[in-house]
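Inverse folding, one chain.
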């Protein structure tokens, strides 16, 4: 469990670092800021994003899930508002950053499965979250 959390945090940190290199409107001024931004973004994604997904579920269904990228862009902008020296110049940059982060996140889940040997599937997720 802890290994999985660390791998996801590292993938978030690497993804955020690569996003700053790819997206011109997103900048991070130092490595400690990158570490802090990855932690803040992880906490925001753990606590705030699920609430927004629940509230915007009908809109996500209507857009075939593409509205999730808007939510992710808003989470990146929120993290930038919280962390000093982490700047996002506009919503377009945040949206492009969300797309890049999503692609890197997919690679992270594949890496998590490869490194831990765990099988990540919807079925195993359902089995672990059933209420008795």
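Residues assigned per position:
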């Amino acid at each position: 469990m802890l290994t999985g959390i660390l791998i996801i945090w590292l993938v978030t940190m690497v993804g955020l670092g690569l996003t700053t290199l790819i997206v011109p409107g997103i900048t991070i001024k130092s490595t400690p800021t990158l570490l802090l931004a990855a932690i803040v973004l992880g906490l925001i994604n753990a606590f705030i994003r699920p609430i927004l997904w629940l509230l915007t579920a009908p809109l996500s269904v209507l857009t075939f899930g593409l509205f999730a990228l808007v939510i992710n862009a808003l989470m990146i902008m929120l993290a930038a508002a919280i962390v000093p020296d982490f700047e996002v110049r506009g919503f377009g940059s945040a949206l492009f950053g969300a797309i890049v982060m999503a692609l890197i996140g997919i690679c992270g889940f594949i890496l998590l499965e490869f490194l831990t040997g765990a099988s990540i599937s919807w079925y195993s997720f359902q089995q672990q979250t059933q209420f008795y």
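The chain has one domain: 2-127. Helices lie at 2-22, 31-47, 49-55, 57-62, 67-82, 91-116, 122-128.
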